[in-house]
Amino acid sequence: MSTYGNLFRVTTYGESHCASVGAIIDGCPPGLTLSADDIQLQLNRRRPGQSDLTTPRNEKDRVLLQSGLEHDVTLGTPIALLVKNEDQRPHDYSETDLYPRPSHADYTYLEKYGVKASSGGGRSSARETIGRVAAGAIAEKYLKQAYGIEIVAFVSSVGKVHIPFSVQRPSQDDEDDEQVEDALSEEFRHLLSTVTREQVDQHPTRCPHLETAEKMTQRIIRAKDNLDSIGGTVTCVIRNVPSGLGEPVFDKFEATLGHAMLSIPATKAFEIGSGFRGTEVPGSKHNDPFVLKPDGSGRLGTKTNWSGGVQGGITNGEDIYFRIGFKSPATISQAQATAQYDGTPGSLAARGRHDPCVVPRAVPIVEAMASIVVMDQLLIQNARKTAAALLPPITTLPKTMVMPGKAQTEQNGTA
Ligand SMILES: Cc1cc2nc3c(=O)[nH]c(=O)nc-3n(C[C@H](O)[C@H](O)[C@H](O)COP(=O)(O)O)c2cc1C
């Protein structure tokens, strides 16, 4: 369906070639200072036509706030926002009246609904993600102000061009118990803990490792010149998230994050923490030992963070980091042997304006979905803590049931 979230609820609407796209956001706390500029910043990073590496569709994507705030302060009521579709060219798609585009959503939408938008990707188009990015910008503003939470995504690979120290060294030897550092190097972990949006935006590929970024550019241009496309990965880090977020068992933090990420068009893979690479390292090297946090809080932290900030489906206060795989876009101008809707074999060379690689534009979408997930989980956990804090303290519990060094009232109290 088109609504995501429990207490911070985001409903997006719109198709690629209709009058407008947008979102209704319900559950935003009242009293948040918010202007269209806060939202526009991220929409500008998502919009098409930013460089030669993206689709030339020329959309300004100016956000129009319709409700839910006055004098740049949120009222706690639903926020409606819209962005007009201005540069539609439905005739670019006439050949797709006959052909479902291979690996696009034309065939499955028609199979499912029995009717589909007459041009473009309709609801499956990345235009839909405008509503997500706008909603994410609102969540992010709250998270930053209330908790100092930082969310930064960046392009970590395009085709086979990876940020070099992000890749596992190949070892076919099963007897060789690799160090976990081989799976995710010191340099890459340093990048995760320090990378900023300014660094990410230094290069049109949105890869903060500039040497790799140049190679990525060449790879995307090669795909474009060949009338083809290429995929890639986006890595994202979320810093300063409080411990305790996530709703086991079905709404574990990483499950909701994976759900949100895999709902972005063109996604094919999601991994958190050491991910698939961690599976090749024994527990003795992969476990994250506990240490007293050096910040004087008296709390436990972990020495390493192969868990990616989530254990048992609950955040542990460490940085949350994850990676998403985006496929090579389906719409290519190179002729492909395929079949028409009626089964007649033929050849499709798609016209229209398309992204040769989606990852540079996917970066703000990933950040938006991450913001929405954290926001929703925070509101849920805060509601639980507030409810628990109203109860009289229990003084009869065995020691093993309570956090050492903490009075029970404090433990049940709000953060
Ligand atoms: C930012 C962004 C831009 C995209 N641009 C295109 C595009 O130009 N051409 C295309 O075929 N798909 C593009 N896609 C992907 C399609 O929307 C998606 O592949 C299609 O709806 C099929 O869905 P699926 O790949 O999730 O199965 C884009 C995706 C994103 C996130």
UniProtKB/TrEMBL annotation:
It is an enzyme of class 4 (lyase). It holds the Pfam family Chorismate_synt. CDD domains: Chorismate_synthase (cd07304). Its EC number is 4.2.3.5. Reduced FMN (FMNH(2)). It comes from the Eukaryota. It catalyses: 5-O-(1-carboxyvinyl)-3-phosphoshikimate = chorismate + phosphate. Belongs to the chorismate synthase family. This is Chorismate synthase. It comes from Marasmiellus scandens. The gene is ARO2.
